[in-house]
Sequence to fold (223 residues):
Amino acid sequence: MSLWLVRILVNPRCHRVWSRGTLDGGALHRDIMRLAPDALGDQARKAANVLFRAEHTQRGLKILAQLSCAPRVDNLAPDFAHGTPECRNIESLVSSMHSGTRVRYRIDANPTKRLGNSAGDKKGRLAVLHGADAAEWWHRRAAESGLELLSTTASAMPDILGSRNRDRRGRCRATSHGVTRFEGVAVVADPEKVRSAVVEGVGRARTYGCGLLSIAPVPTSGG
Fold:
């Protein structure tokens, strides 16, 4: 399986990626899925392992998109990208990780938990985690993903919009997903689990811009 990373600088005139000042993950998903092949069925995102992360830079909104097949950059909507997207096959980078490799990581995650009996009538609902609870969530998920964390910085990011549904009054409302960015240094404890986490993503809201785990080896000092 190949693994590709695509860097896209979003055209500032592409207004559909925003909804009243909030990033529209659903709109981004539809645009980014144009990178994947057609006829992948009802679970096309999962079939092509499409993940993405939005990053705000001095040049504007940048999207890092990842998928497990050659990206069809020419199939992107003409108004979506500003300039030519950069494509890179990162399979060799991910496959070269071995136990003990020290890496830098970054992930925009949607840390949540299912409410229990103590939540009363909210039992069974998902609650977004913040602060120490979010950090605990990431430490647990990182371990499950084959990483031993050495350092972590957690930053609250703006919410991202997801799917749209109609309420009881017939009004169309978008689900809002809380986002926390975790980044730092870790050691690869289980290379296969790390690779699976990179390819498949971590946590919820992967359709809308969460869950892309980016890793890169920390250069060893010469000497």
